[in-house]
Amino acid sequence: MRRHHDDEVHEDEIHEHDRGLSHDLPVLARRRMIRLMAGVGAGLVPLVGCTADDTSSSAAADSPSASSASAAGSAECVTVPEETAGPYPGDGSNGVNVLKESGVVRGDITRSFGDSAGGTAEGAPLTFTLTVVDAASGCGTPKRGAAVYVWHCDREGGYSLYTEGVADENYLRGVQETDERGQVTFTSVFPGCYTGRWPHIHFEVYGSLADATTATAITSTSQLALPKDVCDTVYATEGYESSVDNLGRLSLESDSVFRDGHDQQLAVVKGSVAEGYTATLTIAV
Predict the structure, then answer these.
(1) What is the structure's pLDDT at 133?
(2) How far is CA 1 from CA 55, 133, 191, 234, 259, in A?
(3) What's the pTM?
(4) Half-sphere exposure of 240 toward its Cβ, with a 13 Å CA cutoff?
(5) Which parts of the chain register pLDDT below 50?
(6) Are the C-beta atoms of 267 and 128 separated by less than 8 Å?
(7) How many CB atoms lie within 10 A of CB 60?
């Protein structure tokens, strides 16, 4: 069953979806049960998400290539944890459905498209690549022809289609079909940090582009976490002022989504404010 609410809150206002620990328990219990089952016996099919030897943003990490899936197959293969889509998915499960709109299939998600206001999201440049691999193969086989829908907040912490002031926009949302390497790459901006949530990017994996653009048959729903050192650097720049205090009150260990483990969700990030950042994550499904 899909969950449409998480602990996401904006600008110091506590919304109805911020229900505290009692609201988080179903998510936490499910993920812990998954991990327990994964350790019961070697005969069980693993959950997907491939662990990295070094998840530090300062680690040298090239963009995923055709060899990345086979390399992942030799490492520990763990499916990416299933997470809430939050209250702002834009996939029709909580109000508006952007997935059925012409123009949503795109790589550059910095601008709005279609009949929306036509705005552009401002912020530090961020290009992120997700590599989708097959968990049943031990993470050794890319998922070619799958599709990934991504969305995240803007520099001020608002979500297009939902947040007052940007409800007429649909930027920072997009869908792509995975290539022969199982990869999709999106051009975006670094998301801000709003009250109560660690900086993150939402994503949904679908079996095909047709499934994604009709918002049916979701394979996996999860979130990508961004490293603290990079966040600190970005948030020291103009436009991210509110993110500094918000991040200062959080840690990955206290975040409502990532606190029970983020090994399969912490992206490897490199770059600079001047030149822009790149982020990579391999996700097993």
Answers:
(1) 98
(2) 30, 23, 28, 36, 22
(3) 0.79
(4) 25
(5) 1-74
(6) yes
(7) 7
Q: Please give the Cα distance from 229 to 232 (Å, whole number).
A: 5
Do 189 and 123 touch, CB atoms closer than 8 A?
yes
d(CA 258, CA 105): 29
Confirm if 278 and 270 have CB atoms less than 8 A apart. Answer: yes
**173: which residues sit within 8 A by CB, 6+ positions away?**
90, 98, 104, 109, 149, 150, 151, 160, 161
8 close to 193: Cβ distance less than 8 angstroms: no
Distance CA 181, CA 137 (A): 15
Residues 6+ apart with CB under 8 A from 9: 15, 17, 18, 194, 195, 196, 197
